[in-house]
Amino acid sequence: MPVFRVLVADDERLMAEMLEEMLRADGMLVEKAYTGKEALEKFRSLDFDLVLLDLRMPEMNGLDVLQEMKKEDSTVPVIVITAYGSVDNAVEALKVGAYDFITKPFKLEELRNAVARALEVEQLRREKAYLLSEIQEEFHFEGVIGESPKMKEVMRVAQLVAKTDATVLICGESGTGKELLARSIHYQSNRKDKPFVVVNCGAITETLLESELFGHEKGAFTGAYTRKPGKFELADGGTIFLDEIGEMSPAMQVKLLRVLQEKTFERVGGTTPITVDVRIIAATNRDLKRAVREGTFREDLYYRLNVIPIYLPPLRERKEDLPLLCDFLISRHCRKLHKKIRGISPQAMRILRKYHWPGNIRELDNVLERAIILTQDDVIGVDDLQIFEAPKPGQWKTLKEVEEEYIAQVLEAFAFDLEKAAVLDIPLEELKAKATRLSLKSPEGSPTGTR
Description:
Blueprint: E1 5-9, H1 13-25, E2 29-33, H2 36-45, E3 50-54, H3 62-72, E4 78-82, H4 87-96, E5 100-103, H5 108-139, H6 149-162, E6 168-171, H7 178-187, E7 196-200, H8 206-214, E8 215-216, E9 228-229, H9 231-234, E10 239-243, H10 250-262, E11 264-265, E12 274-275, E13 279-284, H11 288-294, H12 299-305, E14 308-311, H13 322-337, E15 343-344, H14 346-354, H15 360-374, E16 379-380, H16 382-385, H17 399-413, H18 428-437
Helix pairs in contact: 2-3, 5-7, 6-7, 13-15
């Protein structure tokens, strides 16, 4: 339970002392002031969570004090208390920024309730500020670890583009940290207090993706029982991150291009144009230039998205960053798992440097988390890593090929029953989309599905 500090400013000493006694009985710290000037001086010298402020005081009246307090810190709630209550005074105080307005004489329970409401708002504000600081700490640019020349260039471009509204296209293999970089750009931008909305374009079927992006009206299709805003509406003022943009169908590419060109769209089943202010960051692990040549990705959309291209190198091309990455990831997992690990042995680090890392940073993160859980020592050793020496690069299958083979094997093992194949830990709609994209069918020739 947090302890709140309250400033009571009232020139009537008996009233101030009565309020002090009530607040202290409720477990709060209390400071008193008997003039407007004294109240402002104490407000400037101490941190307060709430102010109870009389309107009629010597040296400075309450409204002037309130205005000065709001200039100093607009977040602290102020409850105005006065024996000279009127609608005009109340409106004026609320305009200046008062949280509430109470007229003397009042019941203590009435004031207690007002104080409780104000402090609840203050507590929520604290929690929001804390969470935002945690998010910004996790996603500030230094959190995207790397001292290699390639990563320094990534960070240079990201820092330059963060303060603009330019569209960004992040390219790189799966597991290189594209979403993390996108979040970092958002939380270093002027939109950081607005939403960051993620859409995985490769995990949703074409029909559902249109509704997901643009929303739908009631009755637009079977199952549309209510109006639903889309991700673009939810991201208004903020950033929308379109992951796996290369998997988007040609029809959806046309609709997205229109949004980029005209800044408007309609909900599915709707006719009213909707305009939003959204910054777009897209990401792909595909070669979009090649997709344009092959005719699977629109050239005009590619150029609309590729305003600021950022290439995230795979881990095998930046192995000099391994020590920094390991320190960062081990520290994060130790906090989460409540363990104390001093680091990695030189022999284990040599193994990490030899490994080819087909799954990139995501795979490194998983390897280290498993090692931290299993190790009986305070240093991660070779036996804790549970990875194999890497064969020659040309012998590796891509992560996508491995995933596709594994999905096919699991579906076959469960007779193509998607619900039983939940052991894959893939959302049902995403699994359906992957199975359709891979043209996986049951032995009878029918498409995969639930039973």
